[in-house]
Design goal:
Layout (H helix, E strand, L loop, with lengths): L13 E5 L5 E5 L11 H17 L2 H14 L8 E4 L2 E6 L8 E6 L8 E4 L10 E8 L5 E8 L5 E9 L2 E12 L5 E2 L5 E6 L34 E6 L8 E4 L8 E6 L6 E6 L6 E6 L2 H5 L9 E10 L1 E7 L2 E6 L7 E6 L11 E4 L5 E8 L2 E8 L2 E8 L4 E4 L7 E3 L9 E8 L2 E9 L5 E5 L11 E9 L5 E9 L12 E4 L14 H10 L2 E5 L9 H5 L7 H16 L8 E6 L1 H12 L6 E5 L18 H4 L5 H10 L7 H5 L7 E6 L9 H9 L6 E5 L4
Parallel strand pairs: 33-34, 33-35, 35-36, 36-37, 37-38
Antiparallel strand pairs: 1-2, 3-4, 4-5, 5-6, 7-8, 8-9, 9-10, 11-12, 12-13, 13-14, 15-16, 16-17, 17-18, 19-20, 20-21, 21-22, 23-24, 24-25, 25-26, 27-28, 28-29, 29-30, 31-32, 32-34
Helix pairs in contact: 6-7
């Protein structure tokens, strides 16, 4: 019998919510004190709970599995290559490094020597320093990179100048950015970035050291709401306090902004988002040069193109005043449009379709050599179609097979595309394409130890959910396994189902190791709420339709059992963040159906998520408990409010062995989401708590 730490209950902590029928619902919140990470009681509780988990886990077996797994993943890996000027930048992990090293090669140098640009592993001995973004200027001479620590979303930016094969760390040091990356100007004298006001629990530093600095250790432990993001222009060689304010909203604290220049750098395009939905407002600054460099104007001139968040918009290419964009306007599966930039705000946009909506979801578009490369998701597998500048279809890009393409990014300033291709049984491989002829060539192929793709089977199946909706899943297992003929196998069922995010095929030795070690089956269910089939697929799994996600996931498990793949005693479910919510909600609703539940940094308190850091932006997917209609729905599935005590106490059902993981510096899904359900779940259940700490 596992002995859990005694946990204080504050019986006075009660919240009141309005229901849609006008009544008031009282909701007890006795463990609210765990939201304060600096409370000595919280620190003590985490230590004791972690000790419970450590005592429960078989360290000898864990060490053995870890050693076996690490020997499998010890091979050279690449994930991206980018051409800038005469230099080729890329990342490489020689085997077992915590993070990949960033290199560059001078293509004009006949020796093709690999030079280290950034080694994230060298900045923190405990592995808590993380490279979060890297933006290379068009000339390849300047690199702005962002770094974070301990899993926090807070990012600092620094800059490197490259002279030949030598690198110089500049003194520029920018703080308090989240969900933003630097955008270089044409002259490469500076860049635009977004930042928030410093959290009230921290103090700004003014360090100008020439190596990557450590962040304030308290960053990421605060629960303060992040509001009033602003865009700034930073000129190289100046202090952050001198940065020029570019854009803000004083009226809307939750608005967030991002930017990009048009192809000729004549205009600056500004996107305004209000939540996690892709719909944005669109503006254009027309006198960037005259304000920033020529100094002939003192204020920016703005043309507001979209002001009602009526659709998604993403600039792909421009020719003078002609803009080419992707949008879901009147096209839930997206389309490619163009319009002439109006002379002033308020004039209607004369939008025309260049490539209309297809039968498959248009995920992304990139442009080079007067061509557009449109990437479609056809039953959760990538297809890339090429069109000319007039929207005339030319041909498909020949891919290695069914799978997923990543980092397929053309550039209007050169003709080189490097991209990665992978599937569940095809290791991530780098291919090269020149936009002059669009012929795909193998560039970097990994050598994976003890792996032969011919030993495995990956198939896509479709099953019916509770309401009859046809849902796809990928099933991966050894070639010699045959459902209903072989004995049922241990099975790992993974899902997400939220925020219009598509789960594409990917290669993971972790999955392969599970299959090999336990003669297992790995399954990825592409449930509603994601973006696999466009806007409607997302809508049917969000807000008041969220239950469809849980039904889809439960139906996937039932289908796999019916087809002879596994049994209730052999199935594990897994998901992270929104996927952690998926795992917890389905566990509560069907504790009899699963043997093990693993939730990673999950969103479990659906009544209060909007009160922490950037959680309010998730209301676009979940709703908000302050709205009575939303409360009725959220209170019906919120994991910490719906642990199935009746099933345990009155029906003799044992909850699955449950493992929740969180991070003590996770300031997106704050760790209290995992702490509270860990207490509530201790109802004669097998339960483990495993904080990720600072990794």
């Amino acid at each position: 019998m596992i002995k859990y730490p005694q946990t204080f209950r504050d019986e006075t902590a009660v919240d009141s919510y309005k229901r849609s029928d006008g009544t008031t619902q009282q909701v007890a919140d006795p463990y609210r004190w765990l939201e304060n990470q600096d409370d000595p009681r919280t620190i003590s509780w985490v230590k004791e709970q972690n000790q419970v988990t450590s005592n429960f886990i078989n360290e000898k077996l864990t060490d053995q599995l870890h050693q076996e797994y690490m020997s499998r993943v010890n091979y050279e890996k690449f994930s991206w290559f980018r051409r800038r000027g005469s230099r080729l930048f890329f990342d490489k992990n020689p085997g077992l490094l915590n993070q990949s090293i960033i290199y560059f090669i001078d293509l004009d140098d006949s020796t093709q020597t690999e030079h280290v640009l950034i080694d994230p592993n060298s900045y923190a001995k405990d592995g808590t320093w993380s490279l979060s973004s890297i933006q290379i200027s068009n000339s390849g001479k300047l690199v702005a990179y962002g770094y974070s620590q301990s899993g926090s979303d807070w990012v600092n930016f620094k800059v490197i100048r490259i002279n030949g094969s030598e690198i110089e760390h500049l003194s520029d040091h920018l703080e308090y950015s989240k969900f933003s990356h630097p955008v270089w100007d044409q002259n490469e004298t500076g860049f635009i970035y977004g930042r928030f006001p410093p959290p009230p629990t921290t103090t700004t530093t003014t360090t100008t050291t020439t190596t990557a600095d450590t962040l304030d250790s308290s960053l990421g432990t605060e629960n303060d709401v992040n509001e009033y993001q602003k865009l700034y222009y930073h000129r190289l060689g100046t202090q952050q306090s001198q940065d020029i304010l570019i854009y803000e909203s004083k009226e809307h604290s939750q608005y967030m902004f991002s930017v990009e220049f048009t192809t000729d750098y004549k205009y600056l395009v500004i996107y305004t988002s209000r939540d996690c939905n892709p719909e944005v407002n669109l503006s254009v600054i027309t006198n960037w040069e005259s304000v920033i460099n020529d100094k002939t104007s003192t204020s920016f001139e703005e043309i507001k193109l979209v002001t009602d968040f009526n659709a998604s918009y993403n600039l792909i290419h421009s020719v003078d005043d002609m803009f080419y964009l992707t949008t879901n306007l009147d096209a839930p599966l997206n389309r490619l449009i163009y319009f002439q930039l109006p002379k002033q705000s308020g004039q209607p946009l004369e939008i025309k379709s260049l490539v209309g909506q297809a039968t498959d979801n248009l995920e992304s578009v990139t442009s080079s050599s007067n061509k557009f490369y449109l990437s479609y998701l056809k039953d959760v597998q990538d297809v890339i179609k090429v069109y000319d500048i007039k929207g005339q279809y030319l041909y498909d890009i020949e891919l290695p097979g069914p799978g997923c393409v990543s980092s397929f990014a053309a550039n209007p300033y050169h003709t080189h595309i490097y991209f990665s291709f992978a599937s569940f049984t095809y290791p991530s491989t780098i291919f090269y394409l020149n936009t002059i002829d669009d012929k795909v060539k193998l560039f970097k192929e990994p050598t994976v130890k003890n792996f032969n793709s011919n030993d495995y089977v990956c198939k896509q199946l479709f099953y019916n959910s509770k309401d009859g909706t046809r849902v796809p899943m990928f099933v991966v297992h050894k070639k010699d396994f045959a459902p209903k003929q072989s004995k049922p196998a241990p099975l790992m069922l993974y899902g997400y189902g939220g925020f219009e995010i598509s789960l594409s095929p990917y290669f993971s030795l972790q999955n392969i190791f599970f299959i090999d070690k336990f003669d297992g089956v790995f399954v990825q269910a592409n449930i509603r709420g994601g973006g696999e089939y466009g806007k409607e697929w997302h809508k049917n799994g969000s807000l008041h339709n969220k239950q469809n996600c849980f039904d889809d996931f439960i139906s996937a498990a039932e289908y796999l059992m019916d087809q002879g793949y596994t049994t209730k005693d052999l199935i594990t479910i897994n998901g992270g963040s929104n996927g952690g919510l998926l795992v917890a909600a389905t566990t509560n609703q069907r504790p009899d159906l699963f043997k093990v539940s693993i939730g990673e940094v999950g969103v479990y308190d659906m009544l209060k998520f909007h009160k922490f850091t950037v959680g309010s932006h998730w209301s676009s997917d979940y709703g908000c408990s302050e709205d009575p209609k939303d409360f009725d729905v959220l209170f019906g599935y919120s994991p910490i409010n719906n642990v199935n005590l009746d099933a345990v106490k009155n029906k003799g059902i044992t909850y699955p062995a449950t493992l929740l993981l969180t991070g003590d510096h996770d300031d997106r899904v704050v760790p209290s989401h995992s702490k509270v359900p860990s207490i509530v779940l201790v109802v004669d259940t097998k339960f483990c708590w495993l904080p990720k700490k600072k990794t």
